[in-house]
Amino acid sequence: GQGVDEPLSATGFRQADAAGLFLSNVKFTHVFSSDLLRAKQTAAAILGKNRFCKDLEIKYDARLRERKYGVAEGRPLADLKAMAKDAGEQCPSFTPSGGETLDEVRERARDFFEFLCQLAVELEQKEHGKPGAPGRSSGTSGEQFVFPWTNHCSEAEPSSEGGGSSTVLDANILVVSHGAYMRNWIGYFVSDLNCTLPADLTKSQLSSVSPNTGVSHFIIKLGSGNLLNPEITCVCLNQDSHL
């Protein structure tokens, strides 16, 4: 939760370093992290291993905090499950006294995601001086966004067809957050924004909490700067091959 702001354990630091090595060739343009200490340390460890952006500023945002669990914070998970059982509810959807509901967590996620979309559009408009200008590529050869779970770079070039009508927003954003929060964020992507999922993804995988330093990769396309109807594709979910 939020109330117990513990640092990473020795295992947590090793996992964060492993994630940093895994992502060391990915050129990020922005980094956002929860303002809780364990997330801050994870973000710093990832950037510390990166070839391109060791000095990139990490921006901390309270909207990325873990779900607030109220009276259950600082207590074993078994206690939370017992509270849910006593209330006649299932644990994931149960809200302890003083905690956040799932809808409240999802609203935080929605607010932060819309902020990211607005950021990407403003970057593009600032680059070209006005909306609707042709897109730009994501850097010169050797500076593309190479992702370790694919055999190719991301789609970096605007379409050669249609006179450059396909605008590429040059933002590759690392977001460091927490398991329960991210599960709700992904739920928002799927249920509210019709995110396209990998064909082999099971329902149990979709609803599971990411392992520590698990990596999920989403491609977001904003047609004509339309923030209300983004096209979202999930490339991978809770990737943990680096652990």
Automatic annotation (TrEMBL):
Q: Determine the domain of life of the protein's source.
A: Eukaryota
The answer to keyword Hydrolase applying to this record is yes
MF-aspect GO terms: fructose-2,6-bisphosphate 2-phosphatase activity
List, alphabetically, the InterPro entries matched.
Answer: His_Pase_superF_clade-1 (IPR013078), His_PPase_superfam (IPR029033), Phosphoglycerate_Mutase (IPR051695)
Q: Which Pfam families match?
A: His_Phos_1 (PF00300)
Q: Where does substrate bind?
A: 38, 66-69
A Gene Ontology annotation in the biological process aspect, one of them, is: regulation of pentose-phosphate shunt
Which residues, by range, are in coiled-coil regions? none
A Gene Ontology cellular component where this protein is annotated is: cytosol
Keywords of the record, alphabetical order, are: Hydrolase
| Name by which UniProt lists this protein | TIGAR bisphosphatase
Which species does this protein come from? Pteruthius melanotis
